[in-house]
Design brief:
The protein has about 180 residues and is α/β, with parallel strands linked by helices. The chain has one domain: Rossmann fold. The protein has a five-stranded parallel β-sheet with strand order 2-3-1-4-5, sandwiched between helices. Helix 2 crosses helix 8 and helix 6 packs across helix 7. The longest helix is centred in the middle third of the chain and has 29 residues.
Length: about 180
Amino acid sequence: MEKRSYRELGVALVGLPASGKTSSGVLLADLLGMPFVDLDERVEREAGRSIPALFEDEGEDGFRRRERVALEHVAAGVAAGEPVVLATGGGTVELPENRSVLRERFVTVWIKVDPAAAAARSLGSGRPLLSGDVEAGLRRLYERRRAWYDECAAIAVQSDGMRPAMLAEAIREALR
């Protein structure tokens, strides 16, 4: 099968919460001349509620169902010739069907980050899965999701010590 470029498929960014997916994704989209989509924002918009409210009302399973539908909507647009830079939620890779969509319909980039660095960035963020000892929570998430990030990513970029603009440039270089 012929390898298709990010210009045809768009780019999906995966990684731990606070790895830099959204902040670098906005800048990457500008560098590539593509629209930017934040999957968490899309879920919130389609549900008419915040992610913490969705977790409270529907639990993680309900949120993941909504996330799956939102990912399919974005992927359908990409298939129709509208590539985007997509910042996924950190747990989008939890569902096997999402990993398939990410592999098949995007050039997926795993933004790697040390859990301690992500913890420092996410203090006070109110993320539903990061209460209590944030660093320990991120380490648990990393251990659970590491193989899934690797499974769906065509490219991996280490983000530790990088500002969003530097990270966006590093991702653009890796896409070439």
